[in-house]
Amino acid sequence: MEHITHNKKTGEKEGQKKCFMFDVPCSMNRGFTLLEILVYISILSLVLLLTSTAIFYFSQSNKQTKGDREVLENARRAMEIITYEINGAKSIYTPTSSPNQISLETSKYLPANETTTYIDFFLCGTRICLKKEAQDPFFLTSDSVEVTTLEFTQVSTNGNESIKIALTMNYQDSINNIFPSISITSTASLRSY
After folding, report:
1. Where are the transmembrane segments (predicted)?
2. CA–CA distance from 43 to each of 35, 36, 37, 55 (Å)?
3. Could you write out the DSSP letters of every residue in the chain?
């Protein structure tokens, strides 16, 4: 049996073996126990799990907000342009109008030596197009949205002609499983001046 005495000046126990490179007794430099390591690992894992979950949630929320904003902005812009053109039109050109297309007779965008011209709104695949007479159609909506419904209904009240416009649009992002959608309806009156 080893006899150990305590030195009151240095606070060390005499006869106790010193650990390599350190001036502390070996019994004081014992390292971590397995239980302590497991507790540290579990706490660290929990913190990492909570942090990664929060980052994932905020990332998904940001993508959803972006999709909502994109759909709303495209629908608003398309509806504003369509109602503006209907409001300024002279009449509805019925031979080429259908529930999914509207043709308007207008005095805007006149070709040379003409007094009236025609503009059309219709679906080009999954996007809304505007076509002016003697020009190629151009898109009113971006390729990040898909228009699933575009309907024009003629409404006549007390001799005033109006067009009811129904529009449904979806955001296209199947990679992140985000599918914001919007359905809006508006009515625009023909204001022949």
Report:
1. 37-59
2. 12, 11, 10, 18
3. ----EE-TTT-PEETPPBPTTSSSBGGG-----HHHHHHHHHHHHHHHHHHHHHHHHHHHHHHHHHHHHHHHHHHHHHHHHHHHHHHH-SEE-GGG-BTTEEEEEESSSPPTT-S-EEEEEEEETTEEEEEETTS--EESS-TTEEEEEEEEEEEEETTEEEEEEEEEEEE-BTTTTB--EEEEEEEEE----
pTM exceeding 0.90: no
Question: Would you state the pLDDT for residue 81?
Answer: 96
- pLDDT category of residue 17 using cuts at 50, 70 and 90: low
Structural domains counted in the chain: 1
Task: Say if 25 falls within a structural domain.
Answer: no
The residue segments making up the domain with residue 66 are 38-189
